[in-house]
Amino acid sequence: MLGFNTLALSFLMSFFRPSPVTTPEATLPFELRITFKNNKVELDNQQGCTFSLLVFKANRQVVLNQSGMVNLEAEPKAVDDSRFLFRYTKQGKTIYLTGIKGMAWKTLTFQEDGKPHVLDQNGLK
């Protein structure tokens, strides 16, 4: 027969469950070659995206995922539906990339220097 203290302890312990262990966000492989031509940026998919080539004006600020450009204000569900997300911004000749989801990096900065740059889930190669 269980005593009152054992029942009370069992009752109280039913409310205290351990929190699930959280791990850093998983990254999924992707690779893009970034090239600047005539005030436009070209993102050439090397791996992990559904588009083959994406071109837009270089001075735009855009959010990108595996399918291309995403408008998070109009489509907030895109965060959940995306394998990865990052923001592209250019000021002068400086490019800023901000990882939103599925990246091992948070921010990357590089210069438009006429050479292609290769980006993946771990950063610039």
Spatial gap, N to C terminus: 67 Å
- Average pLDDT for all residues: 84
Main sheet record: 5 strands, antiparallel
Helix percent reads 10-25%
What is the spatial order of strands in the main beta sheet?
3-2-1-9-10
Strand content: 35-45%
Q: What integer value in Å does the Rg equal? A: 22 Å
Written as H for each helix and E for each strand, in order along the chain, the element string is: HEEEEEHEEEEE
- Give the beta-strand count: 10
Q: Detail the poorly predicted runs.
A: 6-24
Query: How many distinct helices?
Result: 2
Mass-distribution shape: globular
The SS-based structural class is: mainly beta
Your description of this structure?
This protein has about 120 residues and is mainly beta. It is built from 2 helices and 10 strands. The strands form 2 sheets. It has a 5-stranded antiparallel β-sheet with strand order 3-2-1-9-10, with no helix packed on it. A 5-stranded antiparallel β-sheet has the order 5-4-6-7-8, with no helix packed on it. The radius of gyration is 22 Å and the shape is globular.
Spell out the blueprint of helices and strands.
Layout: H1 4-13, E1 31-37, E2 40-47, E3 53-57, E4 62-65, E5 68-70, H2 78-81, E6 85-91, E7 94-101, E8 107-111, E9 117-120, E10 123-124
Antiparallel strand pairs: 1-2, 1-9, 2-3, 4-5, 4-6, 6-7, 7-8, 9-10
List keywords for this structure.
125 residues, 5-stranded antiparallel β-sheet, mainly beta, 11% helix
Task: Offer a quick outline of the entry.
With 125 residues, this protein is mainly beta. Helix content is 11%, strand content 42%.
